[in-house]
Amino acid sequence: MLSNVLRGTRLRGAVFFHVGFDRAWAAGAPPAREVADLVLPGSDHVMEYHVVTRGTAWAAMPGKPPVRLERGDMVMFPQGDPHFVSSAPGLEAEFIDADWVAAHRQHERPIPVGDPGGQHAMGRTGRTAEGMTNVVCGFWGCDVRPFNPLLAHLPSMMHFPASPGGAWVIDALRQVVAESGERRFGSEVVLEKISEVLFVEAVRRYIAESPQQQGWIAGLQDRFVGRALALLHHEPAGTWTLDELGQQIGLSRSALHERFTQLIGQPPMQYLAHWRMQLASTRLRDTSDSVATIARDVGYESEAAFSRAFKRLVGTPPVLWRRQARNSGGVGRVGAPGPAS
């Protein structure tokens, strides 16, 4: 089901730079939305991650306690918040701005970055990034509109210590660095796929370890709600009713409604309607399929019924939404507000 959601919300990955430091240092990452169009054009929402491949580092959000990062550790910022990565706790730096990103995005990747004279600020150097501490930094992009059931339930910062079976992460990132530097045919695809695998692995680990008692992730872990979600995602165009869904999972209509709403935050049929709109929006943007065809494929008997539902839930008629989404390169600037990002 996680794969289903990630496909439906267009997960994309890209490694952007490789950092190497050998003195006291600090780097400030701005809100991801400020550089989103530069690092992953067309993405509605951008997240940043860092993996320590050599040495140690510290990561923190402004005003929050820092966390120590050992070799093999990953830290990710699902909501795209500004943050710092540094050689010691408490060090901060000016945030890199969009101009810096624009000036360096065409440089051969990974972009070697080093400490410019010990001023606790990030700057580009001409040497290879092989300092006492090496960090691979990258970005993930996804859609949040019309509906992303996962993203809203991820915390602002997630720290994943290196696990006994996590050596493959370092090996994968070595491949990322090699592919970035050699610029071979297909390198961009390799980088994107490895980055996407890292996101999936991180979310799978979070779901397995999450203490959450509410939200989509908690729903996945629930015996009954998890089965209901699986059925709705497996067959979103099905002629589902609350009674039919309850019979399939072994709960009464009222018990399913109460349990699903308590965990997910909305009733099953409302959730299904929103998920259908997400699937439809992807088809509208990425294909030339007619509105009538898309309507049928996501479970509506008529184009008129689908168009009414789409406008009610998304805020824009499907034909206009398609045109705006294609003109803007993404969905983040059109339609009704989605989950907080």
Shape: globular
- The share of residues in extended strands comes to 15-25%
Radius of gyration: 22 Å
Specify the structural class: alpha+beta
Order of helices and strands: HEEHEEEEEHEEEEHHHHHHHHHH
Helix content: 40-55%
Number of domains: 2
Count of strand segments:
11
Sequence-ordered SSE layout with sheet pairings:
Blueprint: H1 2-8, E1 12-21, E2 26-29, H2 36-39, E3 45-54, E4 57-60, E5 67-69, E6 74-77, E7 83-86, H3 98-104, E8 111-114, E9 123-124, E10 133-142, E11 158-160, H4 167-182, H5 187-209, H6 216-221, H7 223-234, H8 242-249, H9 253-264, H10 268-286, H11 291-297, H12 303-314, H13 318-328
Parallel strand pairs: 1-8
Antiparallel strand pairs: 1-10, 2-7, 3-6, 3-10, 4-5, 4-7, 6-11, 8-9
Helix pairs in contact: 4-5, 7-8, 8-9, 10-13, 11-12
What's the short version?
42% of the residues lie in helices and 17% in strands. With 341 residues, the chain is an alpha+beta fold.
What does this structure look like?
- The chain is an alpha+beta fold and 341 residues long.
- It has two domains: 2-209, no CATH class; 217-328, Orthogonal Bundle (Arc Repressor Mutant, subunit A), CATH 1.10.10.60.
- The protein is built from 13 helices and eleven strands.
- Strands 9-8-1-10-3-6-11 form a seven-stranded mixed sheet. A four-stranded antiparallel sheet has the order 2-7-4-5, with no helix packed on it.
- Helix 7 packs across helix 8, helix 10 packs across helix 13 and helix 11 (291-297) packs across helix 12 (303-314).
List keywords for this structure.
Arc Repressor Mutant, subunit A; four-stranded antiparallel β-sheet; alpha+beta; seven-stranded mixed β-sheet
